Amino acid sequence: MSWRIANECAERRFGSAARKQIIMFLADKASDDGSGIWCSKGTIQRHTELSESTVKRTIIDFLREGILIETGRRHCKNGYTVIYRIVLERVAALEPTAEPEIETGVTVNPVQPEPSTGSTVNGVRGSRWTPNHPKTIHKPPTRRREAAEEVEDLEAEKILAAYPEDRIRDRRTSLRLISGAVKAGVKPDDLQQAVKAYAKESEGYTRSKVCFSDNWFKMRPDGSFRWEKGLVQMQADREKAREAEVKGRASLAEWIHERHPLCRHITNRQIEDLIASKLVTPEQVRAAGLQA
Questions:
Q1: Pairing, β 37-38 against β 79-86
Q2: Which residues pair with 9 in a beta bridge?
Q3: Dihedral angle at the C-alpha atoms of 95, 98, 99, 101, nearest 10 degrees?
Q4: Using an 8 Å Cβ cutoff, are 186 and 220 in contact?
Q5: How many angstroms separate the Cα of 42 from the Cα of each of 5, 35, 45, 125, 187?
Q6: Model-level pTM?
Q7: Pair 55, 19: CB distance under 8 Å
Q8: How far is the C-alpha of 282 from the C-alpha of 289, rounded, in Å?
Q9: How confident is the model over 86-117, as pLDDT tens digits?
């Protein structure tokens, strides 16, 4: 999403509510230069709740007027999806939505030209601007905040990319749900592995048995998530691996204590690990014929 493109479109008149609604949806999918918009007309129709004919006609009109241009095609299960770019120069040339300033002339008792400044108790004046004045609109995110958001977006994109492509639905909602899970404390790598586990488990499922991404990442009515099954399995696998590692260390330490002939197969790195874990001492290692 580009707040720059969205703001630019929001401040221009497009001729009708339907045209404005469609261009704002497209702006929500655009990069900062207006490019990279790839969503089918069916997707636009579902999200804007406009008729299919209205969406098709409006897109054709935008292309004819130069507000949109086609920059390529992206293959999908139904053939391909057209990639669009919003032409900022054409949007900037449209009539702005801001009301023109009206000169009211001079009066004997001039009307106050700006909003009330509120109480002046103790000499402190109120705010000079009303809450919705352009100068009180929140500034764009700082570079640090933008960088953090970009990292979160990249992580969410990376996780969603692991989901079976033919089951990705409502990309924006899916990415929002993924970001929410990560912000709640789920490690991105763990969530990605859970997605891969589900993709492998459900490979070959018929369409009636699969789960689309916007539902798979969404919370169930009972408060649980579908991806938690993968996390539980990963946690169990890690626990088994840790137990096997502890057991393996204990066996190696026992070989050293007993000066077993198999000690010669113990590597220097394993010896260092055993000493660091205080399972053996350097003296016991040397006594077993190994170098500490």
A1: antiparallel
A2: none
A3: -100
A4: no
A5: 22, 20, 5, 54, 34
A6: 0.37
A7: no
A8: 11
A9: 988 888 888 888 765 555 555 555 555 555 55
